[in-house]
Each structure stands twice: as C-alpha cells, then as structure tokens.
Amino acid sequence: MLKELLGLFRTDDPLARMGEDFGTMLDLSHGLTVRAGRVLLEEPSQGDDRKEIRKSDVQINKLERKIRKQVIARLTLGTDAGAVTYCLLLMSIVKDVERIGDYAKNLAEIHHEGGGPVPDDANGAELRAIRGLVEGTFGSVHEVFVSSDSVTATGLIKDGRKTNRRCDRLIKMVAGSAYDAATTTSLVLGARYYKRIESHLLNVLSGVVMPLHKLDYYDERVLDPDIGK
Predict the structure, then answer these.
(1) CATH T-level fold of 2-223
(2) Measured between alpha carbons, how far apart are the two ends of the chain, in Å?
(3) Cα gap 36→58, rounded to integer Å
(4) What is the per-residue pLDDT across 145-155, written as a single tens digit (0 to 9) for each?
C-alpha cells in the first residue's frame, strides 16, 4: 500500500505536502517523547521544559488539523479512486501521531500530578528498559514508513507487542508491591503511557503492512505467512 502512496507523493504536489506534514508530525512527536522520558526518568522538570513540551504538542495538533483539512479538500474536489484510499489512510494515522503527543505530554507531567522519583530497583530498571524500547521503535518509524519497508515494519510490530506485554507485567508487579503512593503513581502511569505510545506507533506501522480496512489490527497471517500452513 505505502509504495503506491509514496509514488503519488512524488508526482502530486497536494499529496506530497500532506506527506511532508505527516513526517514533521512524526519528528515532533518523537522529540517530545524523548524529552518527556528525560523529565520522568533523568532530570526534574523545570518551567521551561513544560513550556517547550506544551509548545511541541500544540504544533502537533495544528499539523493534524492541517492534514485533515488537506485530505477533506482533496476528497471534496474529487480525485481518483486510488488516491481516496491513501487519503483515508493518512486521515487515520495522523490521529495516532496526535495521540502520541498527548501521551508524551502526560509522561512529562507525572511528577507534577503527584508522582515521585522512579526507584533504582528492578521495577525502576524495567521502566527504564521499556522507555529504551519505545524510543527505539520511534527512532525507526519515520524511515520505515517513508521507505515502505514491510519486513522491518513487521518485525517492529512483533517486538512492540512484546514491549506492551512487559508494560502490563510491570503494572502487575507494582500493584503487588509496598511502594508509597507517589512511587506507585510514577511507575504505573509511566508504564501505561509508554504502552499507549507504543500502541499508536504500531498503528502507524500497520499502514505499511495491512490493507486499509485492517488498520490497527495485526493479523497474524499477514505478520507471519507461515501461520496455518
């Protein structure tokens, strides 16, 4: 699907602008997620940090509205059937990137919402490992999307689902612990928000490997053609 979409981007200025705007959204949300991880796990948030994080989130929201407006204009003015499919794809996945910005902002606000320092123990180490995995996925998504690399996208989706299960296990571990309320808040919300960021990244990647009507659904037979043989 994406190969045809990218072909249209290269030959049609309106679609090319949509693609460029979407790439900018991805880059902004990636930077926002990395910065939010530093705020939660490395350094206390200062007023300037929160201001810059909110500014990036506003930019992402504006780009989402811009792309959706471009898509609606394109469809309203009429276009070929193939371009309709790709416009609908973009309309779907820009929402995922916008939601990533929201969850990254939530990460950066955990300490200001009652969360405490993340402990230097096994559970804290697991949250830091999850952060690394999510940021690792994010670091690959833009290039994979632009190149329509279905092999890499499939591998990232499989790995991302494992990361999400690690988030669930961490929450269960924390629920059975004796942490104080502030520490519990940071660990549970950190795991939850990273899971949501990863899930929305996987939705974007699903646009590389899944047909339009199956976006957000990871059909095992598509991810692994040997299943059922």
Answers:
(1) Methane Monooxygenase Hydroxylase; Chain G, domain 1 (1.20.58)
(2) 25
(3) 15
(4) 888 888 999 99
